[in-house]
């Protein structure tokens, strides 16, 4: 039975040989590994040959014979050419095994001697190819590698298909690639072995195109340029690389509003069809290529009277796609539009834009076309463009506002007010808002090369700092220069000290320093009447005080939320709204926290503020995770991570939050990978705050994965980092219960109790009810390990009830799981886990649900402090709890791996624990433990 699959590209991408096609490469590899065949298909330049070569190189060693052919269009008329490529060098090895008639027909076809043809020797040739392949396969596996099947000569294609359909269990595999524009690969699939998987290669995402360009050496491109490359190439890797090469070779990058330079190699792919169009039809298509959303009505308004007939002709030639409505004009591929525009003269382009500057209905579009039709400076044009930028900003399109702002600066005379540099800086700030941080940084750096006005210079420095994101250490030298340019101006100093507050937190890892700088910035801003900066500084101060457990935190939050409020700051990701959310979530007010962050997310999406959108998506995901809505949390976290990676904003924060969500409701291995990625990047940036949060995510994922020792290592580091940072509020990271639980699992109950006691003191002082309930859950495990069974059950029951009332669904389910795990051996069986399974299922906490299902059928259940056999209990006196559990299981005959599985710890932890047992009991091996048990039984 033939298998057909379409694979979607993964969200993430790595600089590997088959960039962007990792998942389908893996699927194709698995298909070949099972002995099946693979047909790769997709449009030209999509990467089929690259994937085919990679797979062929990987599987060539496993085949005794590899037969290859790669057809070309210019040779497709030559009969039997592909067959000669495949069998020409090996037919001599098996010729004597073929019947005479088959041998003669095959040799005649391969050598060109005689007049062999399918009409004359059809059956003999078909059977000859089949017999030859069977004879080769009798010596060992055969792999046929055929690229560009669409150019196979018809005779070879017919013979190969005949043989492929009849190979049966013969160890012959086919690895082929064919160019298709849609799904029309059926005829090639019907000529493949029955067990062939059809794998379609689709376009790359923007992030994958970026990775591909970096891998090929086209590095340092602004994200806006990568976005244009992705849009123009349609995600086609070949087209994207050619566009990247053209940019690298171009002495000057395209100006704002101008399309990318299209190299001759790509123009030739599409422009030969233009020769069949009339001059006027080509002019019509040029106007369409210059428009943002061309329609027939727009072309008519731009003076193209015969647009209907001319676009119809272009559609027949495959230059335009046929639209059902019949009004929109859409090019069959974005590259056609780009090539057409690039081929036109500058005069013809300006004429097209001039026509559209009056024909377009949207004022922003009219302004853009007016700018591109105008040469030199023009204050009226600049004013129109500035108005368009304001309109785009109000519409929530900051990326468009940045583009309009740069065009306005380009047409602004040097002596105008606002100046060209002021308009450039406004465009840079719009670029920051839209997530195009590379563009913003480049604009600011350009302004700094010539600006002398202090306000312009400080404003530019602020853009440079904002563009650095969490990597503030990379721009550390900027701060003294910004302070020098600010002089004694309180408004400018407030801006710099606000950024110094972030530096104190991120670079120095000093919450007290960050709080002091923020308070100073708020004071300076109030003196200067800069309410926006004052609100941001107060919000920062409030968040810092909250995490420090500072007594002034509530008062500072009230000051930050007090009117008058700036609408932009109110929904800013570092503004008072975010501060209020953080206070609510840490105070266990989940319902109000959700409504707050939902409103903030709605507003920033309306405004098009990408960085804030990434941030609030994370916060909403965190809220859903706390509430036990793991599926919803996972969807939101993944969306945040995709957007963060696409824009380069907040990737560490989104990765670590997604790690928590994956560990709760997704894939634990993915959770571990994301957490390690976040730790690595945070440490590279020198960001201690995010390093501690990333380590907390790693420790949690390790706990879910069963690596208690790893959890202890990670969360001990978190404890050290937070102590150094001055963080005392346990509701900030909520890792303390995980650390205590992991310590119990590795037998360190004393340290576990210390963690609980210290954390409980802070939680009581700050009234963190959910933290106290989680600590009670962890303490119940400590008590159970010490043999205080009834007290542990009572404490767990109380903790579960309180977590349920607070709305912490996942933590409630974890308490139910622990409660089921502590049932006595007299009440074993799956029914003890029913409630935990129900609660985890309600949360859609799949990793935890799998643990419950495994524990329900285990004897004894997982997480249970396993009792030692009664006759040997006195032999284990003096051992720690974990040591007693491991020794007891050895006495039962369990292997180290079985012990690790039943106690939910790693094999290495089992080995280390046994080493301590041997030392304490004065024995040398596990055999001695068994003998010890046997000796006790005999007494």
Automatic annotation (TrEMBL):
<dbReference type="InterPro" id="IPR016032">
    <property type="entry name" value="Sig_transdc_resp-reg_C-effctor"/>
</dbReference>
<dbReference type="GO" id="GO:0005737">
    <property type="term" value="C:cytoplasm"/>
</dbReference>
<protein>
    <submittedName>
        <fullName>AAA family ATPase</fullName>
    </submittedName>
</protein>
<dbReference type="Pfam" id="PF13191">
    <property type="entry name" value="AAA_16"/>
</dbReference>
<dbReference type="GO" id="GO:0005524">
    <property type="term" value="F:ATP binding"/>
</dbReference>
<dbReference type="GO" id="GO:0003677">
    <property type="term" value="F:DNA binding"/>
</dbReference>
<dbReference type="Pfam" id="PF00196">
    <property type="entry name" value="GerE"/>
</dbReference>
<dbReference type="InterPro" id="IPR036388">
    <property type="entry name" value="WH-like_DNA-bd_sf"/>
</dbReference>
<keyword id="KW-0547">Nucleotide-binding</keyword>
<dbReference type="InterPro" id="IPR011990">
    <property type="entry name" value="TPR-like_helical_dom_sf"/>
</dbReference>
<dbReference type="GO" id="GO:0004016">
    <property type="term" value="F:adenylate cyclase activity"/>
</dbReference>
<dbReference type="GO" id="GO:0006355">
    <property type="term" value="P:regulation of DNA-templated transcription"/>
</dbReference>
<dbReference type="InterPro" id="IPR003593">
    <property type="entry name" value="AAA+_ATPase"/>
</dbReference>
<feature type="domain" description="HTH luxR-type">
    <location>
        <begin position="872"/>
        <end position="937"/>
    </location>
</feature>
<dbReference type="InterPro" id="IPR041664">
    <property type="entry name" value="AAA_16"/>
</dbReference>
<dbReference type="InterPro" id="IPR000792">
    <property type="entry name" value="Tscrpt_reg_LuxR_C"/>
</dbReference>
<dbReference type="InterPro" id="IPR027417">
    <property type="entry name" value="P-loop_NTPase"/>
</dbReference>
<keyword id="KW-0067">ATP-binding</keyword>
